[in-house]
């Protein structure tokens, strides 16, 4: 099979694999090369895959959609982090969430400043905020 993990801005993984384990709302599932075509909504969690050398890898994913068509398996997700083992993955996920939280805080701050600037502009123009 070929696993392709797609993020909004990049192809995160594109490589041959022999096994994929992921989690959907109704539980974990395993895909092997001869598995029937398949579609599933993924929960945020860990996606495990095994490459052709039988090395196991772990991805933290923020939910998404998995489709298997023939030998192509595609995972579309908004967020993915790869770790060589679960401990490394945990640290990377924590760091990534800290970065995302900081970005969200900065965005909220910028929006609040923009709103305040708009209100100041209305006050200077002598127009009330009610219309």
Strand element count: 7
Terminal Cα span:
60 Å
With strands numbered from the N-terminus, the spatial order across the biggest sheet is 1-2-4-5-6
Under CATH, the homologous superfamily of one domain reads F0F1 ATP synthase delta/epsilon subunit, N-terminal
**Helix residue percentage:** 25-40%
CATH fold naming of one domain: ATP Synthase, domain 1
Mean pLDDT: 85
Mind telling me the CATH class of one domain? Mainly Beta
Detail the poorly predicted runs: none
Share in β-strands: over 45%
In this structure, how is the largest beta sheet organized?
5 strands, mixed, barrel
Oligomer: single chain
Sketch the topology as an H/E string, one letter per element.
Answer: EEEEEEEH
Structural class: alpha+beta
> What is Rg?
21 Å
Counted by DSSP, the helix tally is 1
Principal-axes geometry comes out as elongated
Task: Give me the CATH architecture of one domain, please.
Answer: Sandwich
Description:
Helices cover 31% and strands 47% of the residues. It is of the alpha+beta class. The chain has a five-stranded mixed barrel with strand order 1-2-4-5-6. β4 and β5 form a beta hairpin. The longest helix has 40 residues. The model has no long low-confidence stretch (mean pLDDT 85).
What key phrases describe this protein's structure?
131 residues; alpha+beta; ATP Synthase, domain 1; 1 helix; elongated; membrane; F0F1 ATP synthase subunit epsilon; ATPsynth_dsu/esu_N
Put the structure in a nutshell.
This protein is α+β, with helices and mostly antiparallel strands and 131 residues long. It has one helix and seven strands. 31% of the residues lie in helices and 47% in strands.
